[in-house]
Design a protein that fits this description.
Layout lengths: L2 H8 L13 H11 L11 E6 L2 H10 L5 H4 L2 E8 L1 H10 L15 H24 L3 E5 L6 H8 L5 E10 L26 H15 L11 H10 L2 H17 L5
Antiparallel strand pairs: 1-2, 2-4, 3-4
Amino acid sequence: MNPTIELMNARSSTRAYDPAPLSDAEKQAILHATMRAPTAGNLMLYSIIEIEDQALKDRLAVTCDHQPFIARAPWVLIFVADYQKWIDLFAVSGVDRLPGVTHRRAPGPGDLLLACSDALIAAQNAVIAAESLGIGSCYIGDVLEQAEEHAELLGLPNHTLPVAMLCFGRPAKPRRRTPHYEKHVVHKDGYRRLSAEELREASDELAQLHAPRGFRPGIQNIGQDVYERKYAAGFTHELNRSVAVWLERWQTPEG
C-alpha cells in the first residue's frame, strides 16, 4: 500500500483538538492543495469562508446542532457553493448585449449541483492535505441547517449555499479508525437494488460495525436505529426545511 492510500485509510474524524494553532505556512499549504482540486469548467464554483472571530465560532457551535468542539477548533473553514461571483461578473460584462439574450436567468438546480460538487471536492482536498501534515479534521453538515440565521451570520447572498464546514486541529488524543461497510457498495454497469436476503445480511453486518454493544430499548435492528436516530429525527426535518429555503434563495432572480 502506498503512503497516500495508507494516509487515507488511517484518517478518521477529529473532534478533540490540541489547542495549539496552525501555523500560517500550514494553512497556506492546505489552501493551496484545496484549490488544486478538480472544478467544473475550471470555474471554481465555490468560495471559502475562514472563521477567525471566536464569538462567531461560539455561535456556530450552537446553531450547528449544539456541538461545543466547533468553538474549540483551532481553524474553521466553511465551503460555500457560489454562483454569485459569476452572476455579478455577468452583470458587469455586458452579457445582456449578446445576441438572443433578453434577460439574465437566475442559476438553477443544475448549477447548484455543479457548485456543490466543486465545493465538496475542494473540501476533501483540504482534508487529505491537512492529514498529511498531522492535522485532523471533521466535516460539519449542520451548517446547512438554520438557513436564515446562517445566511445572516455569514453575509451570504442569494446565489450561495454553505455546503460544508470543516474543523481542523491536531488530535488531542489517539483516534479510532471508523469502520466502513464496503460490501454491496460497488455496482457493475448499472444500479442494482439489493434483495431482501442481501438487505438482512447487510443489516446484520452494519449492526456489528456501528452498534456492537446492542441497540437502545425498543430498537431491534440497524434499520430501525438509523430511521429513528437520523432519518426521522428533528434535525433532519430542520435540514430539509432549510435546504428548501436555500433552494428558493438560489433560484431567486436578481432584483
